[in-house]
Request: fold
Amino acid sequence: MTSTPAGDRFELTPADLAPQLSPDRLGFQTTAELDPLDDVVGQDRALKALELGLSIRHRGYNVFASGLSGTDTKELIRRLLEVRARLEPTPDDWAYVHNFDEPDRPLALRLPGGHGVRLRDALEQLLDRLRHDLPEALKAKDFSAERDRLGASFGQRSEALFDDLLDQAKRLNLNVQRLPNGVLNIIPLKDGRPMEARDFEQLGESERADVERRQKEMGEHVAATMARQQELMAELHEAIEEIVRGFARRILDPLFDRVKADFPAAPLATWLDRLRDHLLDHLDRLKQEDEPPPGDLNAQIRRADPWLACRVNVVADHSHAEGAPLVVELAPSYKNLFGTVEHDVNLFGRVTTDFTRIKPGSLLRASGGYLVLDLEDALTEPLVWKQLKRALRSGQLLTEAYDPLSLFSAAALRPQPIPIDTKVVALGPVQLYYLLREVDEEFAALFKIRADFGDETPRDEQGEHAYARFVARVARKEGLPPFTAAAVAEVICFGARAAGHREKLSVEFGEVADLVREAGYWARADGKTSVSGEHVRRALDERVYRGDRIAAKIRELIREGTLRIALRGQRVGQINGLPLLQMGELRFGWPSRITAAAGIGQEGVVSIEREVELSGDIHNKGVLILGGYLLHRYARQHPLALSASLTFEQSYGWIEGDSASSAELYCLLSALADVPLRQDIAVTGSVNQHGEVQVVGGINEKIEGFFDACRLTGLTGTQGVCIPRGNVSNLVLRPDVIRAVSEGRFHVWAVDTIDEGIELLTGLPAGDLDQEETFHYRLDRRQQEILSLLESQPTPAVVPHVRQAVVGGTPAPAPPPLPGERG
Reply:
């Protein structure tokens, strides 16, 4: 059968099947001539919202960015914020230091940007000077002379005490003997000589009692003298310590004065004074710096940093920053966002920690600037969402040990909270935004601004130039060969197809970047120094081939006749629909036979898929609309009386969508009017009750799927696809399909109404109910015949209803089971 005049009226030209883009109009030879793309394309609405949210520093004006997807999402936001952050002031540093009053509550010090590391280094240098200069000072002649003078003075006082003790002994006729170990031995005298033991035994009782009395009295004097000697030793030690403190103060005061001059903030100056006093009070710790013996485990366990109080833990460092910080958190876990307090467990199970083990998180590091995170990832991490809301609501960050099981709570510190001014840009799907607004009343108060990024931009001169610059950026960044203008034109066509509209371009640049990389690979494989349009087309063909196994198997089943699809001739009550299958990146269409059976009766239209529960609500709605069309078209002057069934033949999976409702209607009308339909034309499109054909999705894949099936069995020159006219703007077909159309071996028709489709599929004018030799006249005459037959029966005719209906759509019926698989 050849194309009818009506068919010629609806047929599209090759120019209608894809964007018309000449490489010459792009204005360059290769992308090496272009500046890489650094800005964002076609997102004015989202950029204004983002600008507002970032400019208002008031608490709660955080931004939820939706509509972005792909691996380049965070990179896009980073580039948007990078320029802005560089022009903003650098925030202050924050550091934790020792709290001399409550050691388990470290103090947080605010310092001007970049001063945190400077303070840490200054105190390290101060300690180094103290370690070196104080021992040297204690070895100096001045210190030795002063110490010797004190020793001599205290020695004289000690000797004077001993002399007084000897005088007391002489008065009591006793002698005091100083033993080598420092013990004083009291010996009674007889005739000026020390009394022997036998002399003592020869004494009378009264004489013995007198000796014992005098020895007791002398013992009291000796005890008092020994106590005074201890006091003198303590005084000597204190005097020497005071000399050491004096020498240390001569060293420390200039060092601390210099640090205080460099860091004049009042809170820091107060803390430095406390630190200086602490050092003066603990100068003896200089002697503890030697490493304990390797075998002395107890000494190793007891050993601690003698200069811990002098350490500075800089948790927010902006010493190398240019402007405000920008942190892109790739893994928004609790520790990564809020930081933690680490701890050590020694061989004996003892848990230790200190303020130097406080580790900052990205929320603190980004304070005064911007933090970018994937909110969907953050919500899946334990405790993160609750703590994030608390920090954003209060404007303070409390760093705690991340210990969900409370295993080490005894060793936990309680650091002083740090005020934060972090602008959070949360990325996520739009569904997550509306879900959180619905279930979490705090979400709207914390994320007041939504930046809704679209997925397309107009395919005008500006959009095409931006695509070319994007290709230049990817090629230059990843070391790929430059792309010719023809290659960029192919990439632009891919962008139009990805956008689903010939006058628009997709801004899902992740997919575009993948195509650029793959085309660059094939150019290098060919040994070329630039990427041509052929390389881009090969990358697209290879991509299709990699995911085409299931589609190829379906075409094989059609060629073998396992799937009974008629691609030639005419049939009553039968038509080729075009379902679409999408599973991940796999997306293709194929012909599916739809049949209708009609007879005398008043059962209405029965959907077989609905009867066996293999169809969805939208699908069922599509055929209910068919009933509305029948009433609108044929039941104005007399009731309808029909009994018919509709089904997708050899379909064994779930069916949903309404994009085959026009094909369903053509098939049903053919069965009711007993008029054959062309089998070399596949049909897609939804329909309303007034017979207007409406647009559907996946139009390119559906046309190409039917073309591939026809080419496999042999193109006849009459085959083609009937689509809604509203879908013409969505056409971006493969070059081989366009070439077949230009050669007259394949056709694409576009219709606005069911009447136009009837004329294309039947070769008859659609006409009206009262116009003889038209399609609607034949169908109405057939209805009147059925009514006459029913009126002759005992049961009167009634207006039938459509019991259930199924309309193939997007997504459409699952492909039939392959040989060896269960249906």
Q: What stands out?
A: The first helix runs from residue 5 to 10. Residues 297-302, 796-823 have pLDDT under 50 and may be disordered. The domain at 551-791 is CATH 3.30.230.10 (Ribosomal Protein S5; domain 2).
